[in-house]
Amino acid sequence: xxxxxxxxxxxxxxxxxxxxxxxxxxxxxxxxxxxxxxxxxxxxxxxxxxxxxxxxxxxxxxxxxxxxxxxxxxxxxxxxxxxxxxxxxxxxxxxxxxxxxxxxxxxxxxxxxxxxxxxxxxxxxxxxxxxxxxxxxxxxxxxxxxxxxxxxxxxxxxxxxxxxxxxxxxxxxxxxxxxxxxxxxxxxxxxxxxxxxxxxxxxxxxxxxxxxxxxxxxxxxxxxxxxxxxxxxxxxxxxxxxxxxxxxxxxxxxxxxxxxxxxxxxxxxxxxxxxxxxxxxxxxxxxxxxxxxxxxxxxxxxxxxxxxxxxxxxxxxxxxxxxxxxxxxxxxxxxxxxxxxxxxxxxxxxxxxxxxxxxx
Length: 360
Hints:
The protein is 71% helix and 0% strand. The protein is mostly helical. Helix 2 (54-76) runs antiparallel to helix 3 and helix 3 (79-113) packs across helix 13. The chain is flat and about 70 Å long. It starts with 29 loop residues before the first helix and ends in a 7-residue tail after the last helix.
């Protein structure tokens, strides 16, 4: 056997490179500085041009922010980094443009509605009061909203849940495609169309008068597709291995759905239902057609006209006097607080039912 001599590899130095070890970088505070300069230039250009709207100032400042960011980054760094910073700047500008109207709406509603929103306002109705008189409350509208939304949920949630179960677990063929198509159509249906449908069928066709239940049926039509879509997506997230393991043990399919699939996705389903409730709470058109409004407390949603929070805000604001406008802003703040509470409850349910990390 011949002996081979292993030569030790020679370590050579890497070839010299002309590229610098470190590139020039803008400081971290540069976006803030560019934003301040852009805001100052936007205000200056707006004043010179004679624009009184602050929205125009803001749009000019946003445009200048993107342009200055690109120019400064190109001079200091390079064009590749400039394009990256421009993309980031556009995202920030779009975020600010989306947040500013929301903050302005919340601030205006809170500042104008908080001065009248108190215990008396929440616990009294408008019974026995004139439109020009100060005082009165929103209790009858709040009670009507709770009853109408509650009845709509009792109608729409079971139907939407069972429809989603059918589409995910059983649906095949033309019937499933037809149901999916009509759910998609109902998702974008205008609220006034739902109100007109119930008006033609329930009130004009069957001869029933205005009531909270009629409004609830219209709200249920608007709520069903949201429940179906959200529940369907949650059921699809359940791993098929869980279904197969249950079926392999001889458990019937209906019991597998009841004991395995639904408990696994109950958090997302509950969140979708709560968001659907928040979506229909502010609907006004069906209530105007079917509920009519009432200044007195009507605890019976199946007989007689009722009030609701959106209708209360509309009726008070259209009167035009100072007292009614203050009540409208207070009612709007009550409605926003109610919807926000529903969203917080939905997030709490989602966090509570979410899978625990690390098996805890």
